[in-house]
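Hi W.,

Here's what went into the run:
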Amino acid sequence: MTNSSSPKRNEQDQPETSGPVLKSLKTKLSKPEDAEKKIVGKKLKDVEISVPIVYGNIAFWLGKKANEYQSHKWTVYVRGATNEDTSGVIKKVVFQLHSSFNNPTRVVESPPFELSEQGWGEFEIAITLHFHSDVCEKPLSLYHQLKLYPEDESTSLSIKKPVVVESYDELVFPEPSESFLARVQNHPAVSVPRLPVGFTLPTPAEDPSERKRVDTKDHPLTQWFTNFSEADELLQLAAARQQVQTHIAKLRRQITVIEGQQQQLKPSSDQ
Amino acid sequence: MDAKDILGLPKTPLSVPPEKKSQPKKDSQRKPDGISREVYALTGGLAPLMPSIDSSYLKKRPPSDEKITWQWLPFTNSARKDTLQLYHWVRVVNGVPPTGDYSFAKYNKSIEVTKYTDEEYAKHLTDPSWTKQETDQLFDLCEQFDLRFVIIADRFPSSRTMEELKDRYYSVCRSILLARASSPADVSGHPLVKENYNASQEKERKRALSMVLSQTKQQEKKDAEVLAEAKKIAESRMAAKGVEESVMPATENEFPETTIDHNDTLVSLSNVRLAPVAAPPSTLVIADTSSTLASLRMLPVYLRTYALEQMVQQASSSAGLRTIKRVEQTLQDLGINLKPRVPTKAVCAEHLELRKEILTLLNLQKQLQYKEAEGSSLREGTTYSEMPGTPKDRTFIPDAMSFGGNTCLCATFLVKGPGRVSETPSSPANKRPRKMKASDL
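Here's what came out:
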């Protein structure tokens, strides 16, 4: 589903959101609901649209040009996780800055949904996403702590290397409207799970030249974006689960052994 | 700042700028007048709800026109039946002693016990199991002891249970009430007429109370567990019903099947003693997950991280705070972030499953501890069957067990890289029984 071919990104792992994986996990979590789905058929309740996004900030130290009140130039933004255009989903983004800024409520109505400013302080920014009316009527708020200085205090500030803090999250629309679904079928920024039988399946192969190229691809900050790969975490989690399961099996064996011993020792016990 | 610049030192991050949102300041309250600072500090800096003594009252002096003397005078108590005269100190104002009865006489209240005449007895109150003499004795005692049935039952000459005595007394009173009433409507409001004393119900109630009181801790725990699970099942059924009603009615036949499973697991839980904790809760957890999922589906939009939080909360709802902390500690030992860095649907699902498995693991560990504790107490020939029972068990077993248990658990996870299970788990397991034997000696 995601086949972005941005020249600037050096990606090895594609964030994988393949259909079969989703489905098998869904069945693990919600057995009775799957049964419902088969009967229900065409209802849109069974389709869940998730839009992976990344939000955060990039901050550059101004070096010689820095003064007491403006030591950094920073940009706070919301982007699609794969750098694709999210304007089909998000209508506008409102960034609520610290009250010491002029006009602390900044509205960005077109992509790229970002805001640049100069300042010296770190504070929490409230990012409110407003969606198109057929997507969702209610806005959703995210909170991001603006970070200007590097974690490690001993690192010297450099003009060239910015401080980047990004958070990955996914917007989940449990009951999308038909128009939204139609609009977003082939969209690379959006992941739509396996559709039930009633829907016409989209053509799997996508013509890259037809897809709209957005500014984000040529954005100067793109080089600093973090590549969020779920593969690593999945591997880690799978390994951890394996360990835990082995331990559980061992404990269960121990318990049965002890129970056996106790049975022999005292037949008249309360057991 | 300039000095640091010159020296080339890094500037300290001004992470607490004065213009940052100010935290709510805890303003130190002024101490009120009249109370010394130290005394006020004793209350924790808060004013007491009600002033104990009004400070102005302390400073008041008695009006100077009154002359107060204290005299040793006799007094009588109207509550007494005899004419005993006692003496006490009296505050005399201007040579006039205070009037009025002894101040404590008003507390001499007594209960009105109905009295019946012999005629009334013959007409309304005869009872096959009670003789007139017994009934008279009962009423005497009732009057003497103000209807304190515990004492009356003790003093009653022939042996009768308290319920029987109460029953007799209340039915006699009721019959008299009805007999003396001019019309039934007058007395229908009286509590005795409305709700008569029910001896068998009282017996049952007292028996149930004493049973609850004498329950052992283990029984209490089990009862609480069963009740909690029953509640969860009921709630999940309600949630399921709520969701159901918004979906087409054709799907209703799907759900009852799954709920029937839950019934079975509940029954089997109560029948089987110390059943493996993992199995039944997992089926119940699936039911609860669907209610959380249902509530999430109601939202027009939500964040994946929010959904994960909700699911984690629901999964840990049956666990105490300490257990939750231990789960988090285990996650950290395994090298897993408490909040996944890339929370996709797949990652969140795996994360949730991992947490649930860790909970299962911790429960099993606890179970194993109990079992081993029981084993050791049995070996010593004692009849204690619960781990938290004797203080002796407490002292050495937790020390040997919890310390050994935790360290070897951590050791197994930290030894080799991810994905490879080390061989060492077997040795710590052997160490455990050996440790116990050493401390047995």
